[in-house]
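Quick one, T. Sequence first:
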Amino acid sequence: MTRRALIQYLAVVTVRQHDKILESVFLTDHGLDQHRYRHLKRIARKQWQSGKAVIGEHSNQQLWQHVRRMNGEAAHQVAARIVAICARNPGCVLLFERLRKFKQGSASTSRRMNRSQANQLRGKINQYARAKAYQHGIVTVEVNPWGTSQHCSRCGARGERFSLVAGKRVQWKGGKLFWCPMCPYCANADHNGSANVHHSFFAEFCWHPKPKRKPPG
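Structure tokens:
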């Protein structure tokens, strides 16, 4: 695994004006995800050794407080940078992707806890950025993210996400890169999704609410 594969983005900010992307800023976590995972792994090990969650143990309380403090500081810093970018573009509207519900999955306890904490961190970034934007008179809007990660931000065609593993292209829904077979357009998947949030807001291309499934019978 290369060092580049360990980079996590807490937010990707894309500035668009008159159908043209003016600026894209990638806000990284500076190793927060890996650092938090190591602490949560220690907590999970202690819980496994005791056979249950250690609610009153002093060391676990300290670890949880440290994890929450890291998340809080990161959320404030990222939110401040997002609003600073908006402030450089007077009259802009700050669009947020509507956060999806967290699914537990079948990963280890420490990985599930880390995913849960990462999801909560994104919620805090959203909350703090809205509050800071309000103080600057910036309008914020929440956008339906359906389809933004599967479609090309240039032509609207359905593409595919993939990652490079040992120099080989591996297609999977959580891939770091996006490729469109129609353009062809290849870009960072987070950047492509960020640009598509604009299309979703303006109802461009093929974006519309995901159809509800009919109950069986």
